[in-house]
Design brief:
Elements (H helix, E strand, L loop, with lengths): L3 H11 L6 H15 L8 H6 L6 H10 L5 H5 L12 H15 L9 H4 L2 H22 L17 H29 L9 H14 L11 E2 L5 E2 L1 H30 L10 H26 L10 H23 L6 H18 L6 H16 L12
Antiparallel strand pairs: 1-2
The structure holds protoporphyrin IX containing FE (HEM) (2 copies) and iron/sulfur cluster (2 copies).
C-alpha cells in the first residue's frame, strides 16, 4: 500500500464539493483506510478495511451502514477547517440520498426524494384531510355525535380498506424492489449455516441502534462536542411508538377478519392499549427528534436533507397526535371531523413512505444484515497488503 502522504496528496487533489457523492466517499475512505484511527467507532471502518477499492455499490453499502453519530468527524485531524475537508458523516449522508433515488422503483420516481420536504409533507396531509372534510361536509355528516363512537358509520370499513390497502401495498412493493436492487448491487456472498446468527446480530444492532453509541457507549457527539444518548433515545421512542401503532392496526385487522370483532374496541382492549402507548411514544419521540434536529451542527450530515428529515418527523407526529385527539374526543360531535383529519395524515404518511425518509430504515436494515454476513466470511485482503 502507498504511504499515507502520497495517498493523502492524491485524495486531496480529488477534493471537490460538487463531486459525485460516491467519488467523495471514495476519496474520504482512501484516506481513512491508510489512517484507521477510527476503527473502533462503528461497523463502517472494519467493513472499509476489508476493501482496497470503493466502487459505487460499495460506497452505497458503507453509507447506509454509517449512523451519522459524528464520532469520526470529531476525532479526525483532517476534518474542517483542515484543508482536506474530511467529513465522513456528510459524505456518507450525501450518498444515502443517492441510494434512495438510484435504487427507487419505479426508477422515474427516484426524483421524488428531492421533493419530499417539510412543506410538501404537511401540505399533502392538510390537502388530503381537507378533501375528506369537504366530502363529509357535502354529505352533511361533518359534525355529529355518532352512536357508540362507531366510526365505520362515517367511513365504512370497506372504504377505509379500499383507500389504505392499495397505497400501503404499493409502498411495500416499491421499497421491496428498491432494497432487492440495493442488495444485488453488492451482495455479501453466501451466508451458509451462519445466516441465523447474522440475522439475529443485524436485528439486535437495528433494534438497539448500536451504532449511535459512538463506539464507547456514551452516544453521539453533540453540536458542542459533548457525548449524548439523546438521539438514540428519541429515535427509540419514535421507532417503538411507530411499531406499537402498527401492531395495534394489525391486531385490529386480525380481530376484524379472524374473529369478526368489529371496532371500536374498549379502552382495555389490546388494539387500544397498543395504539395509545404507541401514539404517546411516537408523539413524544418525534417532538424530541425535531428539537434535536433543529440543534444539530451543520457539519453533522448533509444540511440539504434536513427538510426531508423534518417532513418525515412532522408526518409521524401529525399521525400520532391526530390519532390521540380522535381517541380522546370520539364521543363528541367532533368525531367525523377528527377522523377525516387523522385519515388525511395517515394517507399522506403511507403515500410518502417509499419516496421519503422512511426508506432509511429499509436500506439501513439491509446494510446491517449485509455487514453481519460479510464479517463472518474470511477477508479477501491478505494480511501483508497493508
Ligand atoms: C432498521 C431500522 C432503523 C435504523 C437502523 C434507523 C437508524 C436511523 C439513524 C442512524 C438515523 C440518523 C441518521 C439519519 O438521519 O439517517 C435515523 C433517523 C431517523 N429515523 Fe430511523 N432507523 C430505523 C427505522 C426507523 C423507523 C421505522 C422510523 C419511524 C417510522 C424511524 C424514524 C426516524 C426519523 C424520524 C429520523 C430522522 C431524525 C432526524 O433527522 O433528526 N427510523 N434513523
Ligand atoms: C390503515 C390506516 C389507519 C386507519 C384506518 C386508522 C384509523 C384510526 C381510527 C378509526 C382511530 C380511532 C380509534 C378510536 O377512537 O377508538 C385511530 C386512532 C389512532 N390512530 Fe390510527 N389509523 C390508521 C393508521 C395509523 C397509524 C399508521 C398510526 C401511527 C403511526 C396511527 C395512530 C393512531 C393513534 C395513536 C390512535 C389513538 C389510539 C387508539 O385509538 O388506538 N393510526 N386510528
Ligand atoms: S475520519 Fe479521520 S481520523 Fe478517522 S480514520 Fe478517517 S482520516 Fe483517520
Ligand atoms: S459518523 Fe459515526 S457511524 Fe458514521 S462512519 Fe463516523 S463513526 Fe461511523
Amino acid at each position: 500500500m502507498q504511504p499515507l502522504e502520497t495517498l493523502v496528496r492524491e485524495a486531496q487533489a480529488l477534493a471537490d464539493p460538487t463531486a459525485e457523492p460516491t467519488a467523495e466517499v471514495r476519496r474520504v475512505l482512501q484516506i481513512c483506510n491508510a489512517c484507521r484511527c477510527c476503527e473502533g467507532f462503528c461497523a463502517v471502518f472494519p467493513a472499509m478495511t476489508r476493501r482496497l477499492a470503493f466502487p459505487p455499490a460499495d460506497a452505497h453499502f458503507l453509507a447506509n451502514l454509517c449512523h451519522s453519530c459524528g464520532a469520526c468527524l470529531h476525532a479526525c485531524q483532517y476534518a474542517p477547517p483542515h484543508e482536506f475537508q474530511l467529513n465522513v458523516p456528510r459524505a456518507m449522508a450525501r450518498v444515502r440520498a443517492r441510494t434512495y433515488a438510484d435504487y427507487a422503483w419505479p426508477p422515474a420516481l427516484g426524483v421524488l426524494y428531492q421533493r419530499s420536504g417539510l412543506t410538501l409533507s404537511v401540505a399533502l396531509a392538510a390537502g388530503l384531510a381537507l378533501f375528506l372534510v369537504l366530502a363529509l361536509a357535502l354529505d352533511g355528516s361533518l359534525w355529529q355525535a355518532v352512536p357508540g363512537a362507531d366510526f365505520y358509520r362515517i367511513f365504512p370499513h370497506s372504504l377505509m380498506v379500499a383507500l389504505f390497502l392499495p397505497v400501503f401495498a404499493f409502498a411495500v412493493l416499491a421499497l421491496g424492489i428498491g432494497v432487492k436492487r440495493f442488495w444485488r448491487a453488492a451482495p455479501p456472498g453466501p451466508a451458509g449455516p451462519q445466516l441465523g446468527a447474522a440475522v439475529a446480530e443485524a436485528a439486535s444492532n437495528a433494534l438497539r441502534l448500536k451504532y449511535l453509541d459512538g463506539g464507547h457507549g456514551d452516544g453521539c457527539n453533540n453540536e458542542d462536542d459533548a457525548f449524548t444518548l439523546a438521539r438514540r433515545r428519541a429515535h427509540h421512542a419514535t421507532f417503538y411508538g411507530f411499531m406499537l401503532c402498527f401492531a395495534a392496526t394489525s391486531v385490529g385487522t386480525l380481530y376484524h377478519y379472524a374473529f369478526g370483532w368489529v371496532a371500536p374496541y374498549g379502552y382495555t382492549s389490546l388494539p387500544k392499549l397498543l395504539g395509545t402507548a404507541g401514539g404517546v411514544l411516537l408523539a413524544a419521540g418525534t417532538i424530541w427528534l425535531w428539537r434535536l434536529n433543529r440543534r444539530r451542527h451543520p457539519l453533522h450530515g448533509d444540511p440539504a436533507q434536513q427538510t426531508m428529515d423534518r417532513g418525515f418527523i412532522a408526518l409521524l407526529f401529525l399521525t400520532a397526535a391526530t390519532g390521540l385527539v380522535l381517541m380522546a374526543l370520539h364521543t363528541t360531535p367532533a368525531l367525523p371531523l377528527l377522523l377525516a383529519v387523522h385519515l388525511g395524515a395517515v394517507l399522506a404518511l403511507f403515500a410518502t413512505l417509499p419516496y421519503g425518509k422512511f426508506a432509511h430504515g429499509v436500506y439501513r436494515g439491509a446494510a446491517l444484515l449485509k455487514w453481519a454476513i460479510e464479517k463472518r466470511r474470511p477477508s479477501t485482503i491478505a494480511l501483508g497488503d497493508d
